[in-house]
Structures are given as C-alpha cells and as structure tokens.
Design goal:
The complex is a heterodimer of chains A (415) and B (107). Chain A is of the alpha/beta class and 415 residues long. Chain A is 30% helix and 26% strand. Chain A contains twelve helices and 18 strands. Chain A is globular. Chain B has helices at 35-42, 90-99; strands at residues 3-5, 12-14, 19-23, 51-57, 65-71, 77-82. Classes of the chains: A alpha/beta (415), B alpha+beta (107).
Chain lengths: 415, 107
C-alpha cells in the first residue's frame, strides 16, 4: 500500500496524479477462508480489520451484495457520541469514540473526525432530570459529559431559539468531544487497511444461502459461487433477519426505515451537533455547508430504503421551531436507510444457535458512531469464540434472561 | 403514502390515520410452556423481506385493530382482514399467490 502523505500529494502533483492506484483490490473469491464477514459496511469492515490487527487472522473475506459502504454507512447523519446511560453501552460507544480520535492516523486515511461538541437539548423538566442523571452516570463510567444551562447553550449555538413557543430550552447534555466524521471515508479507510493486510473485499457478491453440517457452519452460497469458511460473521444491519433465516434461526429484530435529509449548502451557521429529542429532530452542518438533518423512524417493517413523507414533515417542523433562521432553506435530498431495531434499542454481538456463526446487528438508528468499537468487540468474539468485556452483555441470551440494556431513552429519536 | 382499507369501518385510511402494531399471528403459549417458547413469543420476529402479516389500528378513525398482508420489499398491500382471524384467510392467501407465485406460503 502506498502511504498517503503530503509528500505523496507533492509527487503526484508533478506527474498529473497518474500514480495513485486503487485504494483496495478487487479479487475473485477463493475456495475457502478462515473467516467470512457478510456485509462490507463500516461494522463488517471494522470487524475484519480488527481480526487482522488484534488477532493476526488475515485469511478473511468480506462479502458485499452491493457496493462497499452503500448501505447505512453511506446513509447516516455521521454523528459520534457516547453519552449513554447504561454501563455496557457507555463502554462500547466510548471505546468507539476514543478509537475515532486517532483513526485517521492509524489507518493513514483522513476520516475527518471532527469533535466539534454535541448538545442534547433538555426541553422539559423530565428531560432535564434525565440528562442530569446521564451526566452523573457518565462521570462514573469515565465518559466526559456535562450538564449546561440555557445561557451556555445559546452561547454555543447562537442560531438556536431558546425561548421556543412550545418547548423552551432549559439546558443541555453536552459532550464536548462528540461530533461527526466523514461516513464514507470510515468505510474506505477500513477497506484500504483490510485489503493491505491481504484480506479479500468482494463486492457485488450476494449471499444466497448458509451451508451447515452437524450444527456448525460450513460456508455460504453466493451469487459468485460457493465459498467455504471456518467461521461466519453476519454483519448486515437491516438485512440481519434475512441472513438469520438462511442460517436457520430468528432474531429479535425488526427492520424499519429511518430517513435523513440535507439542505442546500449555506455559510457556516452552526459548529456543533444539536439534538432536540422532545420535538424529534437533530441537525449539524457538514463541511460542504449543508445542514444534515435526521428524525424518527417509521413504525412498520420495511426494506425499501424509502420512508414516509409525514416523518420528514415532522422533523423539519421541529427544527424550524428550534432554529427559526432555517425556515427559508430549501432541502436538497432526502433518503432512507433500513435500521435493525431490537426491543431494548441495544445491539446484539453474539454467538448464535448455529455453531461458529456470529451476529453483529441491532445497532438500530445509532450504528455509525459505534463502528470502531463494534468491530473491536466483534473481532474478539470471533477470534476467541467467546465475548470479551465489551461484548459480554450484548449476547442474544439477554432476551431470554431478561437482562435488557434499556437505551430506549438515550436512543429514542436521535442517534 | 401507505393506504390500508379498514375491514371494520371500510374506510381507505392513509398511514397518518393508522398506528402500526407489529407482526400478526404471534402464538402465545399457555402455562407450562418452555422458556424458549415464551422468548419466541415475546421477542423473535420473522421480519421477512417480502410478504408480511401485521397488526394495525385505525387509531384516528374507528379505533379498531385489524390485520394486513403487505410486502415489505415493495410496500404493496395484498389485503386487510379482521383482527380475530387466527391465521390469514384463504382469499388473502389467494391474493398473495396471484401476485407472488413463488411465495412459500404462510407458516
């Protein structure tokens, strides 16, 4: 792999940028791999990367039915935070956030991590108390957050209307090292690093069946032929139930459409991420100047990557109320992604009823921020066959045993 | 926008009039059932990419629950029927088979 650096830019500038080469290879699938990861989104690629980096397992294939990072990795609102209430969630999301801090250097690829600060507005007394509780929990978990008053919110976000007609801003849960990153670049960076370790990233390769014998996984059938493996990792977000059915079990997952939209680009207006959970909307400004906006999910099962119009209307209405200055902006694009929702709004990193088959799913509306931590924990689970400390609480057995990790408040709307 | 015809009042209701209620025909096992059965009833979902049977409530209309057969991959609606049905009625099955000849059937 050619290192990206200022010297490489200078060298290529002198020869018409003819020498950059491909960032990752496009190999034909081999007959057999040690580990097959299904799904070349952020989570799948991070899983493969940490398998190689932390455990030296490099005979790995990442299979992708479409193109790399073309699912939810390319469709989210790129927000990174770790201000969760429950200990297991705070641990894995903070691991992810801390890995983001040095991800560009580690992968030699600019993922544009921007710890610009993140505010979750408290707009009811109930919400204010809830966030104060979260701040206290975060203090014990080693996650740096604070509760700030309305005047400080106004100072951080001058365009906000803190005396809103329905829900005045009472304060906010503030995570100064939360922020955003470039979502595509995260997938591309991991893909390049995986390819450099000799792993095969195989795009346009849809898994059509899972082969097993004696209760153990043998391999997968794909649109590009049959491939054997010792271990299989299913990391396919909204399509998890489809893969699980091929593997012969059911998951506590429902697939819903979640929408996002961006405005026309404007000059810098807001340099933090703001989430308004009471009125259902969140917003940040991209480096291109577009306001990136997200809201709530539809309530019914859906695989179409399109959502219902009235949710867009609700979200925009909430944000116009919170930021009256944006009321004349045109919206440029809207789109949907299929999110995999669990009952307790926490992910599943787990062994499955099928031997040597593991799942990483259920990140629901908040998968992007957890990509490095998720890959880290999933790689450990696959390599050792048993979860490490980060994944231990996120097993499938928690549903039978009633040990839910209830994040429906933290994750309710904004994620 | 998704439009479902309420079998109770006959109104073709738009999505904003309706409240979704998740998978239909879940089987609740009685006393003495195993932990697996109860876990399955509470949490495990088919969540298919394709034909899906689900519960809806005509919340902003007559207020009654009903069931619908819908395709999650195309948002096509095959029909709606009474909430009291223990399994999809034959006319709904026929309507699905007419549109999806290679559908494996209700199980």
């Amino acid at each position: 792999m050619r290192r990206y650096s200022v010297f490489a830019v200078a060298r290529e500038a002198l020869r018409f940028h003819a020498g950059w080469g491909r960032a990752w290879a496009a190999p034909e699938p081999k007959r057999k791999y040690d580990v097959i990861v299904v799904g070349a989104g952020g989570h799948g690629l991070a899983t493969a990367y940490y398998l190689g980096r932390n455990f030296g397992i490099r005979n790995v294939a990442v299979l992708e039915k479409g193109w790399l990072g073309g699912g939810n990795t390319g469709r989210n609102t790129t927000i990174i935070r770790s201000n969760y209430l429950q200990d297991p969630s705070a641990a894995i999301y903070e691991k992810a956030r801390s890995l983001f801090e040095t991800l560009s250097q580690e992968l030699n690829y600019n993922v544009m991590f921007s710890p610009r600060g993140l505010l979750m507005l408290a707009q009811t007394e109930h919400e204010a108390r809830g966030y104060k509780r979260t701040v206290h929990a975060n203090a014990l978990q080693g996650v740096q957050t604070e509760y700030i008053d309305a005047a400080r919110v106004k100072a951080l976000v001058p365009i906000i209307n803190i005396e809103g007609p329905r829900y005045p801003v009472l304060g906010a849960l503030y995570q100064a090292r939360g922020g955003t990153a470039r979502h595509d670049a995260v997938a591309w960076a991991y893909a390049r690093a995986c390819s450099d370790m000799g792993m095969d990233i195989i795009q346009n390769c849809e898994v059509t069946g899972v082969r097993s014998a004696g209760g153990k996984v043998q391999g997968v059938d794909t649109s590009r032929g049959s491939i054997d493996c010792d271990k299989l990792a299913i990391v396919v977000a909204g399509n998890s139930s489809v893969l699980a059915e091929m593997a012969g079990f059911r998951l506590p997952i429902e697939s819903l459409a979640l929408q996002a939209l961006v405005s026309e680009p404007i000059k810098p207006a807001i340099d933090v991420v703001v989430m308004a959970n009471t009125v259902h909307g969140y917003m940040s400004q991209s480096d291109k100047g577009e306001l990136v906006i997200g809201g709530g999910t539809d309530g019914f099962n859906n695989y179409t990557q399109r959502g219902s119009w009235h949710h867009v209307e609700e979200t925009v209405r909430a944000l116009v109320e919170t930021f009256p200055i944006i009321s004349r902006l045109k919206m440029m694009r809207s789109w949907g992604g299929i999110v995999d929702m669990t009952g307790d709004r926490s992910p599943i990193l787990s062994a499955t009823p099928l031997g040597n088959c593991f799942v990483n799913c259920g990140w629901g509306t908040g998968g992007f921020k957890s990509i490095p931590g998720s890959g880290w924990a999933m790689a450990e689970l696959i390599a050792k066959g048993a979860p490490g400390p980060l994944a231990a609480e996120f097993g499938l057995n928690r549903f039978r045993e009633g040990r839910f990790i209830d994040e429906s408040v933290a994750a309710g709307v904004a994620h | 926008m998704l439009t479902l015809t309420c079998p109770c009042c006959g109104v073709a209701a738009e999505e904003t009039e309706l409240a979704p209620g998740g998978e239909a025909h879940l089987k609740r096992f009685g006393p003495g059932a195993s932990d697996e059965d109860f876990e399955g009833y509470l949490f495990a979902r088919k969540n298919p990419k394709g034909v899906h049977f689900e519960r809806w409530r005509h919340a902003m209309g007559c207020g009654k629950w009903f069931l619908a057969a819908r395709c999650t991959a195309t948002l096509e609606v095959f029909g709606t029927y009474k909430a009291q049905s223990p399994e999809p009625p034959p006319e709904i099955i026929a309507a699905i088979k007419a549109r999806r000849p290679d559908w494996k059937g209700y199980s």
